[in-house]
Amino acid sequence: MTPLINPVTLFFASIFTSNILLSNFLGMCSFISISKDWKSSFGLGMAVTVVMTITTAISWVILFYVITPLGLEYLSFIVFIVVIAAVVQVLEMVIDRASPALYMSLGIFLPLITVNCAILGAILFMQIRSYGFIQSVAFGAGSGAGWWLAIMLLAAIRERTEKNPVPAGLKGPGITMITIGFMAMAFIGFSGMIAVQ
Amino acid sequence: MNPIILGPLVVAGSAAFLALVIALVDRVVNNYGEVTIDINHGKKLFKVQGGSALLGTLASQGLFVPSACGGRGSCGACKVRVLSDVGPVLPTETPYLSPQELADNVRLSCQVKLKKDIAIELPEELFSVRKFKATVEKIRDLTYDIKETTFRLDDPKAIEFVCGQYVQIVVPPYGEIKESVQRAYSMSSRPGDTGHVELLVRLVPGGIATTWVHKMLKEGDSVELVGPFGEFRVHDTPSAMVCVAGGSGMAPFKSMFYDMRERDAFPDKEIWYFFGARTTRDMFYLDELRQLASEWPRFHFVPALSEPKPEEKWEGDVGLITDVLDRYIKDRVAKDKGLEGYLCGSPGMINACIAVMTKNEISASNIYYDKFA
């Protein structure tokens, strides 16, 4: 068991010092493809945050009350994936009914999230680092918020640099990858502040 | 416990539990209760169970909005004007809607989910659309790739339609095709023969419905037809009809000509019928239509081949149907009462004929066609 990190510290740490996108490079595909547009990025980022928070919480319960006591840790991947898919499905139905407006902006991204590796990544980090329940929720919410922050930053940069004279060979994904590289370097600057393990 | 049993048990158990949660949420969340569909300002009112798409719900009430893809949002045919608020237009609909339709709140009925009371507007003709149970009475080869298929209507036993309208044939899942689809075919039978529907089906390589009709359908089989649909019809004016068809585009014209001949309808109309094919192998109904032309003075039949082979001894016109059409309109067709264009065939043929007709001063508003892709 790792020394207990304060959940609040963990929340902010997973946004800034160990941003799941910019330090672990998880969830890159939707990050690059959706960040063209500010509004969609906002929706996808929010959806990732919500799903990540809920799935880490549910996965923690299943992991520590079912899988670990039975010594079935090697099955955890399958169970986690099923949990993610189920949570996304339930969330989609509830949002569709509760708020059509929210569904319009967020709901269409939910199927995309089922296969977003950042979600599974967050759950696996939680398992490897043996977080407690409160810590797990804080970590999930923080990682999601960090993902949201990163895609918002990238979308803002891309909107501002859209008209810039980029060399032909670097247009589109090329210059985006370089931008992400710079962002990652900037975020590394935070990493000395708190060590999240 | 043995891990070989325990492992699957745990995975299956958690999956089952989550599936149960989803099913419960679905029961609670997707229960919209009873909703009312108001059609054309109270002309028809349906009380139905909410939660499904508008298209399927209307069909369950016996009202068939035309749809080629069966409600998967890939054909854009099932447009309906919605008068009440059903939420914003979905991204799945926008590719099929014009700016004018968006402004009028026209929606794809297969994408609109019934969540609360709704008011819509439909063309009155759709009220007479029925789903027919029919039996294949006869299948006849007209050419190597066109079959004349005759259906006997079993329930309801009779259809009322106007020459030029079409029906949709319901193609059940077969082989690799996992979902039922519907495809539109113009009726080539006369409206006077209310107990039968005749369709001309050309085999399109890879086509779902045409392959089914050509390879699977046998005499005596039961099928479902939905119809009639469509605005393509003879217009009641004294202007001469200039009709152009290729391949199975023959169908609506066959129906029109024999019906007009039988009832002596629109007696002022001269009729010119241009039928284009590549070789005699693609030509059909030649003797029947020549016979009709010889007995009926106001009907002129111009079959033309674009690539006749010398050994075929073709005596009719030669050339692309557009060139033949151009020659005839310039030299032979009497233009004193005005001309109307009627087209049926591939989109390419229709566009080429429209160009020839407008060049020969038939106004675009007097050119009528059904474009079957």
Structural features, described:
The complex is a heterodimer of chains A (197) and B (373). Chain A has one domain (7-188). Chain A is 70% helix and 0% strand. Chain A is built from 9 helices and no strands. Chain A has helices at 7-15, 28-34, 38-67, 76-98, 100-106, 110-114, 117-128, 133-161, 173-188. With 373 residues, chain B is α/β, with parallel strands linked by helices. Chain B has 3 domains: 34-126, Beta-grasp domain (Ubiquitin-like (UB roll), Roll), CATH 3.10.20; 129-229, Elongation Factor Tu (Ef-tu), domain 3 (Beta Barrel); 240-371, Nucleotide-binding domain of ferredoxin-NADP reductase (FNR) module (Rossmann fold). Chain B is 26% helix and 29% strand. Chain B has 8 helices and 17 strands. Chain B has helices at residues 3-29, 54-60, 99-103, 208-216, 250-263, 286-295, 321-331, 347-359; strands at 34-39, 44-49, 79-82, 106-108, 118-121, 130-141, 146-155, 166-171, 181-186, 196-202, 222-229, 240-246, 271-277, 299-305, 317-318, 339-345, 367-371. In chain B, strand 1 and strand 2 (44-49) form a beta hairpin. Chain B is globular, with a radius of gyration of 25 Å. Chain B starts with a helix and ends with a strand. Chains A and B meet through helix 3, helix 4 and helix 5 of A and helix 1 of B.
Short description:
The complex is a heterodimer of chains A (197) and B (373). Chain A is mainly alpha-helical and 197 residues long.
User: What separation lies between the terminal Cα atoms of chain A?
Assistant: 11 Å
- Helicity range of chain B: 25-40%
Shape of chain A: globular
Determine the number of helices of chain B (DSSP H or I, runs of at least 4 residues). 8
Broad shape of chain B:
globular
As for the CATH topology of the largest domain in chain B, it is Rossmann fold
**Residue runs with pLDDT of under 50 for 5 or more positions of chain B:** none
CATH superfamily of the largest domain in chain B: Nucleotide-binding domain of ferredoxin-NADP reductase (FNR) module
Number of helices of chain A: 9
- State Rg of chain B: 25 Å
The major sheet of chain A is characterized as: none
Which quaternary structure do these chains form? heterodimer
Tell me the strand percentage band of chain A: under 5%
Counting DSSP E segments of at least 2 residues, the number of strands of chain B comes to: 17
Radius of gyration of chain A: 17 Å
Helix content of chain A: over 70%
Order of helices and strands of chain B: HEEHEHEEEEEEEHEEHEHEEHEHE
Order of helices and strands of chain A: HHHHHHHHH
The top level CATH class name of the largest domain in chain B: Alpha Beta
